[in-house]
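A protein record pairs a chain with a discrete description of its three-dimensional fold. The following entry can be read in just this way.
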Amino acid sequence: MDPQTVKTKQVILVSYANEGPVTGDHLKTRETQLNVNGCKEGEVAVQNLWISVDPYLRLLMKEVNTGLPSQNFTLGEPIVSRSVSKVVASANPEFHVGDIVLGYSQVSEYATLSGSGLTKLDAHVAPLPYCLGLLGSSGLTAYVGLIKIGEAKPGDEVFVSAAAGAVGLVVGQLAKIKGCRVVGSASSNEKVKVLKEEFGFDDAFNYKAETDWDAALTKYFPKGIDIYFENVGGHMLEAVLNHINLNARIPVCGMISQYNENWKQHYGVRNLLNLVGKCAKMQGFTVRHYLDHMDQFREEMIGYIKEGKIKYSVDVKQGIDSFLEAFNSMLGGKNIGKTLLQL
């Protein structure tokens, strides 16, 4: 087989972003070439179609690991994210040219990947972007946090922070399906309206407008909070802990309000003793430890989609050169739903 070289752009980490926003001083686009027929045994060459843009990537751009099980990105190398890709060459008998696959890839137009971490996708089951969001890691995160850790049951009072994000939208709708009352917080009046009118939240509030969060939670949760799906950390977590009920559950998905800070400047929550007095459970998790629930999750979620019980929203940016814009838009809360890069 004759070598075939293609031009490809990659997003490279050129400087650690230890604190503050990520800028062009930290991430740059580099053009290089890739021999797509140069796969070693077990590898495939892919053209990336969709790339997931997620908050946790911010932590991997720092010099020091801040607690995630993933390794931080290496200076001078492409960053990596979840992707949906098309196989363009293969030295792996499990995959053929034209297959659509899900896996982790360099944030690039083309890449060579190990076949061991890839899953074939059926584009007829659901739109491909859903495989990175609603039917992918974002949806599974919502499912595991609310159902497996939060143990949601009818009548529970559920609060979701960052409720208009990729995970929060799914959490709120799943909670309604399970018979809970759901309130979300979001960063704009537009998002509050969308949560209530399009995604079925019982109520929602703009945390930038209602800045006394203790008063807001008193108003929206007169019966207290049974489940707090934690996405933001910091002052919001502290406010919530003053309103939790006996045996409350707090699945901790992330703490996005702290991601741009050096860990020594993170806000120290002062009322953790409430967890003791309320016999509450607060548990962090990553979905990589719950992949055995994926089949059950997908079966249940596809059923909800077909029944019209679950809706989703994607915020799509075009082209590899738009990655930094997409990333900062997502981290700044300008998205509704899942942020994706389409190539």
